[in-house]
Amino acid sequence: MRADNTRHIVTAARQRTEQTRERAVRTLQQMNAAGQPVTLGSLARQARVSRSWLYTQDDLRDQIVGRPPAGPGAVPDRQRASTTSLLRRLEATADRIRRLEEENQQLRDALARALGERRAAEIRGNAHSRDTPGREKPEDHRIVSSQLPGPSSRTQSVTHPRRSKP
Predict the structure, then answer these.
(1) How far, in Å, are 24, 49, 57, 88 from residue 29 at the CA level?
(2) C-beta of residue 47 within 8 angstroms of C-beta of residue 23
(3) Which of the listed ranges 6-20, 30-44, 80-94, 97-111 does the model predict with the highest average pLDDT?
(4) Taking the CA atoms of the chain, what radius of gyration do you get in angstroms?
(5) Is there a contact between 146 and 154 (Cβ–Cβ < 8 Å)?
(6) CA distance 46 to 43
């Protein structure tokens, strides 16, 4: 009967796991201290570990994924906004959204009143046939060629193509 040597394999695997984890943690700390952008891929390359292994390390993954997106202008930890600052910005944004929603509601109410008045005028029979009050009808847009530069003396009618009626 053969001797059971699995304890040696288990011990070696445990040591390799500890060394890999220490290497990944040390590399993460170095990258953070240097202000380098940290992603799962960049950490895996520099620490010489696989990305799939990093995904199994919940605490390391949460530290990396919880960071803002890395890129050429990535901000190091020591320069990132504080929680208090972020809360103030969130409050200011929520306040702005509230004001814009109020303004939108006022505009909707004004539009509803204007449409209601227009509808009432149509029912009473004194509705205007144009959408924009105070503007001339398209048929009234005539330019006498004497007002235009050039030798012609005839009258030209200029109307907007969308407003002219067939």
Answers:
(1) 9, 15, 16, 29
(2) yes
(3) 97-111
(4) 37
(5) no
(6) 5
Is 121 in contact with 127 (CB distance < 8 Å)?
yes
- pLDDT tens, 116-136? 999 999 988 876 655 665 555
More confident residue, 63 or 45: 45
Higher-pLDDT residue of 67, 4: 4
pLDDT per position as a tens digit, 42-59: 999 999 999 898 888 888
Q: Record the tokens describing residue 152, joined without a space.
A: 């012609």
What ranges do the domains of the chain cover? 6-71, 92-126
Tell me the residue ranges of DSSP E strands in 100-154. 142-144
Contact 156, 165 (CB under 8 A): no
Contacts by residues 25-29 (CB-CB < 8 Å, ≥ 24 positions apart): 25/60, 28/60, 28/63, 28/64
Beta strands in the chain (DSSP E): 142-144, 155-157
Alpha-carbon distances of 27 from 47, 73, 76, 90, rounded to whole Å: 6, 20, 15, 33
Full-model pTM = 0.38
